[in-house]
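Memo to structure team: turn this sequence into structure tokens by end of day. - J.P.
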Amino acid sequence: MSFNTLGLSDALLRAIDKKGYTVPSPIQEKAIPPILERKDVLASAQTGTGKTAGFTLPLLQILSQGQKLRKRPVRALVLTPTRELAAQVLDNVRAYSEFLDLRSMVIFGGVNANPQIRALRNGVDVLVATPGRLLDLHNQRALSLANVEILVLDEADRMLDMGFQRDINKILNLLPAKRQNLLFSATFSKEIKQLANGILHHPVWVEAAPENTTAEKIEQKLYRVDQKRKSELIIKFISEGGWKQVLVFTRTKHGANRLTKKMVAEGITAAAIHGNKSQGARTKALGGFKKGTIRVLVATDIAARGLDIPLLPHVVNFELPNISEDYVHRIGRTGRAGASGEAISLVSQEEISYVKGIEKLLGEKLQSEIVAGFEPTVSFEKSASTPRNKSRKKAKPKSNNRNYNRRSRR
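Reply from structure team:
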């Protein structure tokens, strides 16, 4: 199948051709036709499957064929969980609408709101936004959502994980009752299905890959190592392997900063991105990573969600996530768009239960290895069978508790 068979306009086909695409991905092939038919869509798609174009292309076609209003009110609203994802969605919108008479912009927090307010006054057809800043500007009467025809919730699962449920409900109350709704999510929890039931009307369900599975071309490796030697081991992998572009995940912001400093001290160019970093610092770090001037990007889950990094060869879980679904999101940063990739996890004794949760989610056993010279002091088998007693509990440092707190990792 080619893009020519999906019912897209000549202007969009011209933009697609300019980007060098010839064959639609499975999610694009399945999602574009029902969206063009103005149906609500519930889409399950792994990261890197081309889902952004899956809703962007038909959305732009619908708007371009609709009635144009003189003041250009917001007619399509795309909600995303993070600033980085919002910026990347806007890049897609602008690239595909190059030959259309449509205006688009992005609004998110962490930057001065005044330029965004001035841009909104000039009129915008497609607005990409994070929930918090959208509500802030609406409360300031800087924008109206009364004319929204299409609502897109992108990475809806992450929005709920980040606590945006209340904000989403407030936004829904500001929208016209009659509209088209598109919900995209990498995984479908009970909460996501409840959200979908409250928003979507007789939706078409499209799925590009089995729910909660990992990309087929990702080679997954687990290395058993003591927590205190993880930094040394990852530096060994990067240096001796000659890795040029590596995305590393930590559970906490402080952990990301510490690991970054250690890598820089060893002569490895690295930068950290997390919620405490300013938007300018995050944009600069991501830009350097994409250009190759920064070799290693160390990130927390929320900061990295939605990052569009083409052909990323290596993803490393410096610490495993305590939520199994996040493992799928993390390693989904590699092995994108048909390319192969490698996902490495450094697993300490304390993380064995996380491994079991991930294996249960994936429905497969993950094989582990040991690097010579980095043998763990306690074997997995022994630690799994040894019952916890009071003396062990008392010996556990309090400082470790914060590292496993779900809130602290953000």
